[in-house]
């Protein structure tokens, strides 16, 4: 699942990963929560700065509802204090800077999948 309020980011993310993974995209928090309620989601990616909620706030909700999901922030502001606090508190597992490298994202997913085995 990828949550971002910018449509172009959602389209780019989906086009980069849809061949290898089942990708769900949401442009707002409620849409993302609806997807989490209906689908089994292993990885939750979110932008940090969105109009209705910070990404780290959203990931706190995700942690409560889907504690097994790997929670990742993709942001142009990885030095953001909220992201650092989220990493320290276990709300965020990983953080990537925009523009992100698809290779880094795939490596993150593969590493986490190996941990499940």
Structural features, described:
It is a single chain. The protein has 117 residues and is of the alpha/beta class. The protein has one domain: Response regulator (Rossmann fold, 3-Layer(aba) Sandwich), CATH 3.40.50. It is built from 5 helices and 5 strands; from the N terminus they run βαβαβαβαβα. The protein has a 5-stranded parallel beta sheet with strand order 2-1-3-4-5, sandwiched between helices. β3, α3 and β4 form a beta-alpha-beta unit. The protein is globular, with a radius of gyration of 13 Å. The relative contact order is 0.16.
Supply the number of structural domains: 1
| Beta content | 15-25%
* pLDDT averaged over residues: 93
Q: Number of helical segments? A: 5
Inertia-based shape: globular
The neighbouring-strand order within the major sheet is: 2-1-3-4-5
Radius of gyration: 13 Å
Please give the alpha-carbon distance between the first and last residues.
Answer: 21 Å
SS class: alpha/beta
- Fold-level CATH name: Rossmann fold
**What CATH architecture would you give?**
3-Layer(aba) Sandwich
The helix-strand sequence is: EHEHEHEHEH
What ranges have pLDDT less than 50 throughout 5 or more consecutive residues?
none
Number of strands: 5
So what's the CATH class? Answer: Alpha Beta
Helicity range: 40-55%
Quick one: biggest sheet?
A: 5 strands, parallel
CATH superfamily: Response regulator
């Amino acid at each position: 699942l990828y949550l971002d309020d910018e449509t172009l980011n959602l389209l780019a993310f989906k086009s980069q990963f849809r061949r290898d993974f089942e990708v769900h995209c949401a442009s707002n928090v409620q849409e993302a929560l609806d997807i989490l309620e209906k689908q089994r989601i292993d990885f939750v990616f979110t932008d940090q700065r969105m109009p209705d909620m910070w990404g780290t706030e959203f990931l706190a909700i995700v942690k409560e509802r889907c504690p097994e999901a790997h929670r990742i922030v993709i942001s142009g502001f990885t030095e953001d204090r909220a992201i650092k606090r989220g990493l320290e508190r276990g709300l965020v597992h990983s953080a990537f800077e925009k523009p992100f490298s698809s290779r880094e994202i795939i490596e993150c997913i593969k590493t986490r999948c190996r941990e499940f085995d």
